Amino acid sequence: PRYIDSSEPEDMQDIAAHLRGGIPAADVEALEKYWAVCPNLKTALFKPSRTGYLDLAVDKAGIKTTIYHHPEFANFIAGMNGHSAYWRERMATRLKGIKPGDFPKDVIFHLSEHLLAWYAGLPLIDRYDVYQHVMDYWAATMQDDVYLITADGWKAETSRIVEKDKKGREKDKGWTCDLIPKALIVAHYFGVEQTVITSLETALETIAAQLAELEEEHGGGEGVFSELDKINKAAVAARLKEIFA
Fold first, then answer.
1. Residue 122 gets which letter from DSSP?
2. How far is the C-alpha of 104 from the C-alpha of 144, rounded, in Å?
3. How far apart are CA 149 and CA 100, in angstroms?
4. Are 117 and 131 in contact (CB under 8 A)?
């Protein structure tokens, strides 16, 4: 904190713009780094007003659409995506070559330093923001996989999930795998079955919500279920029998 200035720049207010409307031209020119990449985008978004001020050339709700559909912006994004894809392809070869005995710290050092160099000097991109994304992913997920591979190789070994209940009895809760998440296996090999299960779970939630609504509507006061201590199939059937007897 002693050496890093964490204060935010003062938000300068233009009183004339507040009173008479318009966008200060100085505020638009302050975005020069964007206009340097998309020089014609500025004229697509703004039009001249009185001296020193501009107006929007598009509807406020259409600003994002105008930017995303502008050919200069589209070309910039396509170039950045290609730049990123080429780096991923190169690093994928390096990562697939990890073998037992390698040092995980060397892996992430090579990866992160190469990334910093790869994004150096690019417009509108802070290479340290990109670097931080990789380091966060490394800390949260990737380093565990790399440590497993450098220790045991490219082996995905499964294990059973065994839990004990309150009485000390063991219950098998299925399987797990440290290297390959179960969700990936399910999505790759059992996508159709998972879709069916998800659909059934959604239907079950809908029915449960309808049941809760019926219980609330008919459970209190003079409701049909007001005399029931517990609302279940047997109790409801008995109550209906009483009503229609």
1. -
2. 9
3. 6
4. no
Exposed / middle / buried, residue 53 (Cβ in 10 Å: 0-12, 13-18, 19+): buried
pLDDT at 117: 95
φ/ψ of 163, rounded to 5, equals -125, 155
AA identity, residue 18? H
Mean pLDDT of residues grouped by 10 in the chain (245 residues)?
Answer: 73 80 89 94 92 92 94 96 95 94 95 95 94 95 93 89 89 88 89 95 94 77 69 76 75
236 CB neighbour count, 10 Å cutoff: 17
CB atoms within 10 A of CB 38: 20
DSSP for 165-218? -TTS-EEEEEEEESSS-HHHHHHHH-HHHHHHHHHHHHHHHHHHHHHHHHHHHH
Residue 11's pLDDT is: 76
Closest CA to 115 of 98, 99, 97, 138: 138
Q: Which residue has the tokens 């809908």?
A: 206
Q: CB–CB of 182/176 below 8 Å? A: yes
Global pTM exceeds 0.70:
no
Closest among 200, 205, 203, 225 to 214, alpha carbons compared: 225
C-alpha 24/C-alpha 49 separation (Å) is 10
- For 159, what's the count of Cα atoms within 13 Å in the CB-facing half-sphere? 7
Q: What angle do CA 129, 134, 140 make, to 5 degrees?
A: 125
